[in-house]
Amino acid sequence: MKRMCWISTSIVTLLMLVGCSVSAPKGILPVSQFELQDYLGKWYEIARLDHSFERGLSNVTAEYSMRDDGGVKVVNRGYSEEEQAWQEAEGKAYFVEDPNTGHLKVSFFGPFYGAYVIFNLDQDYEYSLIAGPDHSYFWLLSRTPTISKDKQAELIAKAEAAGFDTDKLIFVDQGMHQD
Prior knowledge:
Layout: H1 2-17, H2 36-39, E1 41-48, E2 57-66, E3 72-80, E4 85-95, E5 103-109, E6 112-121, E7 127-131, E8 138-142, H3 149-161, E9 170-171
Antiparallel strand pairs: 1-2, 1-8, 1-9, 2-3, 3-4, 4-5, 5-6, 6-7, 7-8
C-alpha cells in the first residue's frame, strides 16, 4: 500500500511539472561540449533540495544508459527506511537542443517532461550539478557514494552562486543497505 502511495505521489508531482517548462531556470546555462557516453553509468546523489518523490530516501542513485531510440534510459533508485524497501522509478530523457549541450528533458510518466539541466560538470565526469525547471530543483551527483568535505564545499558554493538555496540542502545517507 505504501508503495502505491509513493507511486501516486510521484505521479502527482510529475503532473505538476507539466506546468513547468523544459527550459533551464533563469540564469542557469547548461554545459557545452557535453559527451553523453562519458556521462552514462551510475551516479550517487550527494545532496538535493527536498521533494516529495524522494522524501525519506537514502542510498539514492541515478543510472543512465542508452535507449534503442537514441534517448537515455534513467533509473532512479533509493531506499525507504520507513518501508524497509527499495523504491525505483524508470524514465527516459532526450536532448532539448543538441547532443553536445547538457540540457535534457526527462519523463517518468507518459508524455510529461521536466527539465534536466547539467550546469556544472568537471572534465573527468566525476561530479555534476543538476537543475530542474526552476531553482527549487537541485541535485549534486558524484560517481562515488561520498566525496571529500572540500569538494562538497566547493560544489555547494557553485550551487549557491547559481541561485540555489543551499541552506535547505538534504545530504543523502549513502550507508548502502543490502538488496
